[in-house]
Amino acid sequence: MPGQSDTPYLDALRAYAARDPGRFHVPGHKGGPGADPGLVEAFGERVFALDIPALTYGIDVGDEPTPFVEAQRLAAEAWGGRRTWWLVNGASQGNHVALLTLGHRGQRVVTQRNAHSSTIDALITSGLRPTFVSPELDPELHIAHCMTPEALDCALDETPEAAGATVVSPTYFGAVADVAGLAEVAHSHRVPLVVDEAWGAHLAFHEDLPAPALSLGADLVISSTHKVVGSLSQSAMIHLGHGDLIEEGVVDRCVTLVESTSPNSLLCGSLDAARRTAATRGRELVEETLVALARTREAVRQIAGLDVLDERLAGAPGVFDYDPLRLAIDVRGTRMSGYELARRLREEHDVLMELAGENVMVAVYGMGEDAGAASERLIAGLRGVVEAASDAARDTEGVQLAPPPPWGELVMTPREAFLGAQEVVVARDAVGRVAAESLAAYPPGIPNVLPGERLTAETLDYIEQAIAHGGSLRGASDRALRTLRVVLES
Ligand SMILES: Cc1ncc(COP(=O)(O)O)c(C=O)c1O
After folding, report:
1. How far away, in angstroms, is 262 Cα from ligand 1 center?
2. What is the pTM of this model?
3. What pLDDT sits at residue 396?
């Protein structure tokens, strides 16, 4: 039986390519000859030779267990799940799978308000009616942290027919939720806990990192393997936990429901290989990265006006623990916004950040990269930008964050609003109408409006003020909020 040092699926692809069989099946590039020569030159011939379709004997059909099945078994073992499915449409697909799975248990769900947009989209595909829970807000950094067990308990009390609950941990900024507490609360209400751990695929591989959600009782965990663990973009996994609240067969059906019938073998092969690296060398690689990042944090702190988020954040409301593999830089002391700093880093140093907000910028490190060398470039860029910025560049006032008004009443499900007849109206005329789109003013990025909610004057005023103060609007079809898409009610 293959072990963690093996890559059964990747090996099966290689064996197929080495055999060079008669390819009378898709894809039409036929392993290279049918592809554009410039593309072959850019990508390399091997990419085409290894681009092999599903339902190929010896890879995912044939003698059981096939290499495809074996490789996913190894992934479940490495991450500590009952079963793992590879995903070829990212953690976004995982969120669709999760909510469709919950849809088998009922029609309502408790969801963190600032869930990733794919969770909001999954409310549309699943038709579930959400009870939203606000994450904890950081009053100084103006960023959203995690949902607390107490808030989940209240929401589940309010939603006795809930089919489950979904939370995000870690956040973009590295805050980790009290997943054990959340799982205990969910299970006391006899509902499964789904954790969107898109940013935490590495957590299982080093004891100094916050514990992974699967080890803390989560029932279904979404993991964006490509983000930190090193598989190709778009490849991800969903892991089933060890509880009995979710049926394996239902997850299996939901995975295929939202997946192409032609999953890309390169993405799957990269998942198999990333799993091998994580399982066999993950601890050593994470250790090196953590040491390099500790030095990087120190160097960032030495730059006038910059600070970093780190374990000091743990204990703040909604922050149970902190992921030290994330580098989140607090830029407030420079009197420049994160947007401005990131723009200058890009234009003057060709250094590109993962995320820039008003007060915080986030740099992502991969588990296996040479973080020390990468950091030198970042530190040099940050130093250059901060030292070169004139006083004129530093006059940003920043958005003074008033608490956003309560979100409007949910008068129909996001699915009903999305599929219903719609019209575009001038924003001021939208008061009292039902939104057909999402509106989230940044900072802090917690959606102010979601499809199916009644629009209020207070909310539109708030968003307008946020934009006027230099904030931005996400999710809206018109980011300046001149117009809005609303449901046409009869
Ligand atoms: C919390 C969270 N969930 C899900 C996703 C979607 O991941 P993917 O890009 O792999 O589809 C993201 C992407 O940033 C995310 O931040």
Report:
1. 22
2. 0.96
3. 57
